[in-house]
Amino acid sequence: MTMPISKKIVFYSLLTISAFVVFAPALMAFVMSFMDNKDIMTGSLPQSLSFDNYLKAFEQFPLLKYLFNSLVVSVVITIGQLVLSSLAAYAFVFLEFKGRDILFFLFIATMMVPFEASIIPNFHIIRDLNWIDQYPGLTVPFFATAFGTFLLRQNFKQIPRELREASQIVGMGDFKFYLKVVLPVAKTSLVTLGAYGFLTSWNMYLWPLLSTTNDTVRTVQIGLKQLQTQEQLNDWGVIMSGAIIVIIPTLILLFLGQKQLQKGLTEGAIK
């Protein structure tokens, strides 16, 4: 049944308005990144647009170093989550052991525990391991994710049990079956989880703030905060240019993986 033209007009008009409302802050930040501080503070239209704010962003703090740190942290966390979540999901689906379902439900129950509740124990652990200002301290606490395990388990359950039994007949072990059969079938869900893990890690603020004390491994979100000061007038053009630079990698990731993400979300909704 097709939608009447009048309803289509109303529907797409509401979608356009909603998209503009959601995108307006990003558009405003983009425009402000080319304006000088005088025009921004007075709220007037820009007299001219220049890239000076972007140059100042690289000059005022080590932006490239922070971007590199964020990239390393995000990639390591993403790989760790993909490996551990896929292995755990495989165990919960294909390995038979006593108390498997109870253990899985307990594991999923940890999703109800807010991250803030685990900050102090995690901080004590990385401090005792001398991981303060180290990449392991920024990454290892996020390797285990109940959401990722649940997502991949639901995908792995779609693989016929007969396929696993056939692989056992021909002498294929668990690890080979996991690499040769399970992972290729779950490629879409792996891409979805990878994109989610990367974006979440890239935008982390609280944990890197607590687990770093200098610029050695400090991430870009902490660096952006350093552009703001309470002692003098903030240069909002430079701050906005830094914010635009920071979101570019996430936009690239979303554009490149858009089809896979849409496919993964559709399959997740069906399951």
Describe this structure in words.
This protein has 271 residues and is mostly helical. The protein has one domain (59-270): MetI-like fold (Orthogonal Bundle), CATH 1.10.3720.10. 72% of the residues lie in helices and 0% in strands. It is built from 15 helices and no strands. It has helices at residues 5-32, 37-42, 52-60, 63-94, 100-109, 119-128, 135-139, 146-156, 161-169, 174-185, 187-202, 206-211, 220-226, 236-256, 258-270. The radius of gyration is 23 Å and the shape is globular. The two termini are 25 Å apart. The model has no long low-confidence stretch (mean pLDDT 85).
Compile the SSE list and pairings.
Blueprint: H1 5-32, H2 37-42, H3 52-60, H4 63-94, H5 100-109, H6 119-128, H7 135-139, H8 146-156, H9 161-169, H10 174-185, H11 187-202, H12 206-211, H13 220-226, H14 236-256, H15 258-270
Helix pairs in contact: 1-14, 3-14, 4-8, 4-11, 4-13, 11-15
Quote the distance from N terminus to C terminus.
Answer: 25 Å
**The CATH topology:** MetI-like fold
Number of strands: 0
Count helical runs.
15
Largest sheet: none
CATH architecture: Orthogonal Bundle
Shape: globular
Share in β-strands? under 5%
Structural class: mainly alpha
Radius of gyration: 23 Å
CATH superfamily descriptor = MetI-like
Low-confidence stretches: none
Helix content: over 70%
